[in-house]
Amino acid sequence: MDLLDQLRLDYQRFPADQSYHLYAEAVYFKDPLTEFRGVERYRAMIAFMARWFRSIHLDLHQIEYASPQEIHTGWTLRWVAPLPWQPAMEISGHSQLQLDPAGKIIAHIDYWDCSPWAVFRQLWVRPRV
After folding, report:
1. CB-CB contact of 81 with 53 (8 Å)
2. The pTM is what?
3. φ, ψ at 22 (rounded to 5°)
4. How far apart, in whole angstroms, are the C-alpha atoms of residue 25 and residue 27?
5. In which band, very low, low, confident or very high, does the pLDDT at 124 lie, cut at 50, 70 and 90?
6. Among 2, 37, 63, 105, which one has the highest count of C-beta atoms within 10 angstroms of its own C-beta?
7. What does the alpha-carbon distance between residue 79 and residue 26 come to, in Å, rounded to a whole number?
8. Is the pLDDT of residue 129 over 50?
């Protein structure tokens, strides 16, 4: 199975059974809220999401090689926040995954199509349908 196929499977079963072996030990992760290094911190972040959020679903809209050393993805992440009124939340965005010469992911950078404030507001304001 090639790298794109493995990543597709990870998106389908997110946050369960992720292929952490695809990532370098010192992988760099960044999104609009956090930034760190290390596959163990990446694993802990996903475990936190799996433990606290409900009904997590990650839709993959696009995945492709932008170059031999970079993969681009487009996605939408949905979940229910762990609050008594159980607000449904959603973030759409894209990711850039940078690869080392051996094909390990050395950087995973997420870009959101909205501000962190817009995500935070979803805790209290229902989006219009």
Report:
1. yes
2. 0.91
3. -75, -15
4. 6
5. confident
6. 105
7. 28
8. no
